Amino acid sequence: MMDEFLFSAISLLLLGLKTNGLALPRVDRIVNGEYISVTKVSYMLSLSVNSEYTCGAAIINEDWAVTAAHCIILFVNDSVSINIRSGSNKYDSGGVVHNVTTLLYHEKYNQLNNDYDIGLLKASPPFKFDNATQPVKLPGNESIYTSWASIAGWGYFIIELLGYQADIVKRSEIRYCAKSE
Q1: CATH number assigned to the domain comprising residue 6
Q2: Which residues form the signal peptide (predicted)?
């Protein structure tokens, strides 16, 4: 199953962008995506800074989640309130809200080209696993390649200078494209 691959988890993280406090209208986004139950993407987390949705993240174990470094780098040494929401298909309600006690990002992260764009979040309280909250399934040591991946998130993009964001998580299948393409 495609959402067993780490690529899927990291792909969904790249969808989130900071909304800068905009009141966004409800519009169906991930393009060609479909609304899905949180039980289909039970690893999915909503990352908020000072109660504003910022990015997606994925559960990796009881204490830690993975996100994109570009989502957290500005807040590593800042005194802001950072939370992650688990067990909900909405980015701003339902489920369980966890405080983020530790932010880490890859030491080689490059803001100019987004190389090594990966970060970690420590959750408090720890995640309690049930049908709506589970760690992402990662592949073993075998090398797996597929030309398609599954992405999920509350995608955000701009049309005619207006920002739009889905309020319920969506999933879509996308074709893998190498960075060099």
Answers
A1: 2.40.10.10
A2: 1-23
